[in-house]
Amino acid sequence: MTSRLTETVIDSSDPTALADFWCRVLGYVVLHEGDDYVEIGPAKVPDTELLEGIRRGPVAPALLFVPVPEAKARKNRLHLDLTPIDGSQADEVARLEALGAHRVDIGQGQTKWVVLADPEGNEFCVLRSLAPGEFELPADGAAAG
């Protein structure tokens, strides 16, 4: 028996604004919205197709934004890692900064990834790009470390 990750819940001061930021970052759409939440994810598919996909294997999880009265106070205990797929890491960081993200130093030192924060201060990382020309598998087909 196994479970599937289907949503990640993110506390926020303004769920609608934060959901809009992440929709633009990930190319997601609003799936459901209520008085106390906004759920975003890949484009909506019929429920029967979604259920079949979840049962078959991992799917891109939805993000669920819920309001909380307090502001973020410390470093995240859980964060998202993003991997550019159609441009360089630097180009993706510039795009995310234009959307409202900003660089943060959480004591990461010199790393190959870039640590950013969304408009409410939630940290996330931009990893190396997997775009053609930026990342290629070695001739033996094994992923390079």
UniProtKB/TrEMBL annotation:
PROSITE patterns: VOC. Residues 4-129 form the VOC domain. It comes from the Bacteria. This is VOC family protein.
